[in-house]
């Protein structure tokens, strides 16, 4: 028995995986606002929706005289990265939550707790930009589930002590309800040329064991390392979180 | 009839002088390499703009110098000419310095808010730390104003420009409030029975704001060949008609002189431009448009006389608010003419349509002025 995210959420994921640029399908690359820019275009902060990323890319291509039609998908991805376009992990999940839960509910989520009152006030107007992994998984917005075996689509897997987050896209259970596998989706910079929006899978091999003891299947062609799994081992607060 | 005849004569003389001077000015600008830099055009982007690299800038000097020359020699009136011409020349000088610094100047190092904040905590001397604490609010204001600038690296910074424009506005307000007489303090309103509205000293900040806003609005609109020049012709055309109704020969002749010079300028500025207006022209003429409207007591219809300029100005303000406040882009690019450029409209189409729209708005303003 397979359980998936609602169709509209799956559609958003598909759009991120297949950005339509220059008549080609391009996987959305990873981009994080390391400069710490607060005010600016949402799409330039690693928080844009697929259509916003496409529109901005087309605009920048026009500015810079870049013919996207003449580029290969890999080069278009490079162009996106150089232009500061892409999506970070929390931005990716927030954009999915926007269609899953609706804008109103997302606006009601507790945003990053800034010390400045003005910053806190302004953050209410821009929830997508101000919902970090820490904010998404804090006790005001979500709670850690006791048994990872109870996880379901829409739950978030916090890794690297809150520096990265994955979204459970699909769960498979047998007829007696035992969890067989988890498919997750995330936006990551961990896999070199294959970074960006990508899937991974957790095969349940020890149903009574911990989440870390299962078979995590995700690696890139070059390094063969499963960096997502390594992130799970890094930190005590890691685990599966469900929105309240 | 005499006022109309005299105005037309000055218009023709001014245009003739403009046509004679334009090729000379162009040669001088080329000789001293006062030309559009390729990298500035590259920043604006696409193909049509890259072709503009190498075009002489500061072509607006033509209008400024011809207007000042004719007015000083043949239309000088101590009461009515000093401030319009003086403020225009002051703003033009400000724009001229900015133009030159943008071409020949070095990139200026301006301390960011973060740096000032850090220095206010870590500077080795107590006085140093105190100084940086005092200037921190100014650094913040400067940081916000920087959002309105397009080329903040070189030339005059936005906050400096605004301060100097504030002085120009202040001079205009002083002139109107203390020199021109009590009837000028009554703000004219269309369809008003008692001649206008007395808002007292509030008129002073309003005048300052109007002068600053109009100068910057014309500056923003000076981005396509012929746009600012043609639009200014209709704006000053409206003022000329109004001065005929008012029977003020000094203002009528001054407006006509500006139109004549603008006609000569625009002849050389329509695509492909032989020279561009530059800040020297846009700031100078923007200020003059505001000052003349204020002097002719028609502040209320200024948004109609400079309709396109204000649309361009508000497109920038809205874009900045949307971008920095809500993280969204309302227009593909601001000012508005760039939005249409990126939509694929040819430059000539945008310019012609903007001229027509401004012409219609001016007609409405002139009609209102009669009531």
Automatic annotation (TrEMBL), chain A:
Protein name: Uncharacterized protein
Organism: Candidatus Colwellbacteria bacterium RIFCSPHIGHO2_12_FULL_44_17
Automatic annotation (TrEMBL), chain B:
Top-level taxon of origin: Bacteria
Reactions it catalyzes: UDP-N-acetyl-alpha-D-muramoyl-L-alanyl-gamma-D-glutamyl-meso-2,6-diaminopimeloyl-D-alanyl-D-alanine + di-trans,octa-cis-undecaprenyl phosphate = di-trans,octa-cis-undecaprenyl diphospho-N-acetyl-alpha-D-muramoyl-L-alanyl-D-glutamyl-meso-2,6-diaminopimeloyl-D-alanyl-D-alanine + UMP
Family: Belongs to the glycosyltransferase 4 family. MraY subfamily.
Gene name, Swiss-Prot/TrEMBL: mraY
Entries under Pfam families matching the protein: Glycos_transf_4
GO-annotated cellular components: plasma membrane
GO biological process, one term: cell division
Topology in membrane: Multi-pass membrane protein
Organism phylogeny: Bacteria, Candidatus Colwelliibacteriota
Cofactors demanded by this protein: Mg(2+)
Compartment(s) where it occurs, according to its Swiss-Prot or TrEMBL record: Cell membrane; Membrane
Keywords: Cell cycle, Cell division, Cell membrane, Cell shape, Cell wall biogenesis/degradation, Magnesium, Membrane, Metal-binding, Peptidoglycan synthesis, Transferase, Transmembrane, Transmembrane helix
Record field: transmembrane: 6-25, 57-76, 82-101, 162-180, 200-220, 227-245, 251-270, 301-322, 350-370
EC number: 2.7.8.13
PANTHER family cross-referenced by the UniProt entry: PHOSPHO-N-ACETYLMURAMOYL-PENTAPEPTIDE-TRANSFERASE (PTHR22926), PHOSPHO-N-ACETYLMURAMOYL-PENTAPEPTIDE-TRANSFERASE HOMOLOG (PTHR22926:SF5)
Protein name, entry field: Phospho-N-acetylmuramoyl-pentapeptide-transferase
GO MF annotation list: metal ion binding; phospho-N-acetylmuramoyl-pentapeptide-transferase activity; UDP-N-acetylmuramoyl-L-alanyl-D-glutamyl-meso-2,6-diaminopimelyl-D-alanyl-D-alanine:undecaprenyl-phosphate transferase activity
Pathway participation: Cell wall biogenesis; peptidoglycan biosynthesis
Major location category of this protein: membrane
Organism: Candidatus Colwellbacteria bacterium RIFCSPHIGHO2_12_FULL_44_17
Stated role: Catalyzes the initial step of the lipid cycle reactions in the biosynthesis of the cell wall peptidoglycan: transfers peptidoglycan precursor phospho-MurNAc-pentapeptide from UDP-MurNAc-pentapeptide onto the lipid carrier undecaprenyl phosphate, yielding undecaprenyl-pyrophosphoryl-MurNAc-pentapeptide, known as lipid I.
Record: residues binding Mg(2+): 219, 279
């Amino acid at each position: 028995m397979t359980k998936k995210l609602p169709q509209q959420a799956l559609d958003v994921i598909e759009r991120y995986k297949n950005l339509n640029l220059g008549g080609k399908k391009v996987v959305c690359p990873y981009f994080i606002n390391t400069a710490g820019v607060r005010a600016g275009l949402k799409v330039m902060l690693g928080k844009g929706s697929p259509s916003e990323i496409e529109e901005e890319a087309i605009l920048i291509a026009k500015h810079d005289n870049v013919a996207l039609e003449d580029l290969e998908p890999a080069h278009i991805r490079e162009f996106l990265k150089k232009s500061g376009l892409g999506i970070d992990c929390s931005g990716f999940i927030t954009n999915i939550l926007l269609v899953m839960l609706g804008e109103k509910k997302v606006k009601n989520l507790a945003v990053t707790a800034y010390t400045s009152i003005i910053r806190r006030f302004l953050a209410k107007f821009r929830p997508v930009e101000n919902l970090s992994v820490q904010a998404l998984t804090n006790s005001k917005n979500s709670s850690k589930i006791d048994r990872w075996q109870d996880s379901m689509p829409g739950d978030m897997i916090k890794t690297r002590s809150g520096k990265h987050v994955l979204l459970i896209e699909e769960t498979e259970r047998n007829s007696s309800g035992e969890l067989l596998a988890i498919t997750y989706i995330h936006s990551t910079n961990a896999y070199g040329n294959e970074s960006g929006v990508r899937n991974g899978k957790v095969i349940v091999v020890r149903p009574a064991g911990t989440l870390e003891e299962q078979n995590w299947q995700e690696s890139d062609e070059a390094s063969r390392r499963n960096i997502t799994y390594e992130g799970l081992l890094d930190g005590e607060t890691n685990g599966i979180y469900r929105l309240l | 009839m005499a006022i109309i005849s005299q105005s037309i004569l000055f218009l023709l003389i001014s245009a003739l002088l403009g046509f004679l001077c334009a090729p000379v000015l162009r040669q001088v600008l080329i000789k001293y390499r006062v030309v559009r830099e390729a990298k500035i055009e590259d920043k604006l982007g696409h193909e049509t703009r890259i072709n503009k690299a190498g075009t002489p800038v500061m072509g607006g000097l033509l209008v400024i110098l011809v207007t000042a020359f004719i007015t000083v020699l043949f239309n000088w009136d101590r009461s009515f000419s000093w401030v319009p011409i003086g403020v225009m020349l002051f703003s033009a000088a400000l724009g001229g310095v900015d133009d030159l610094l943008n071409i020949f100047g070095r990139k200026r190092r301006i301390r960011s808010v973060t740096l000032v904040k850090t220095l206010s905590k870590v500077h080795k001397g107590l006085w140093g730390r105190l100084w940086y604490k005092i200037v921190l609010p100014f650094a913040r204001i400067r940081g916000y104003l920087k959002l309105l600038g397009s080329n903040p690296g070189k030339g005059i910074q936005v906050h400096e420009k605004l301060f100097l424009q504030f002085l120009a506005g202040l001079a205009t307000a002083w002139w109107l409030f203390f020199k021109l007489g009590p009837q000028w303090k009554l703000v004219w309103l269309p369809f008003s029975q008692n001649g206008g509205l007395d808002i007292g000293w509030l008129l002073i900040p309003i005048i300052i704001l109007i002068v600053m806003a109009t100068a910057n609005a014309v500056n923003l609109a000076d981005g396509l060949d012929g746009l600012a020049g043609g639009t200014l012709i209709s704006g000053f055309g409206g003022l000329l008609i109004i001065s005929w109704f008012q029977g003020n020969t000094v203002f009528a002749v001054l407006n006509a002189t500006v139109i004549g010079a603008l006609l000569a300028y625009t002849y050389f500025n329509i695509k492909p431009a032989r020279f561009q207006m530059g800040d020297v022209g846009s700031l100078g003429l923007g200020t003059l448009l505001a000052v003349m409207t204020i002097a002719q007591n028609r502040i209320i219809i200024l948004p109609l006389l400079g309709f396109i300029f204000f649309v361009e100005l508000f497109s920038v303000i809205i874009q900045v608010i949307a971008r920095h406040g809500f993280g969204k882009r309302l227009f593909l690019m601001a000012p508005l003419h760039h939005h249409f450029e990126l939509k694929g409209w040819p430059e000539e189409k945008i310019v012609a349509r903007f001229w027509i729209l401004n012409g219609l708005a001016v007609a409405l303003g002139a009609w209102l002025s009669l009531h």
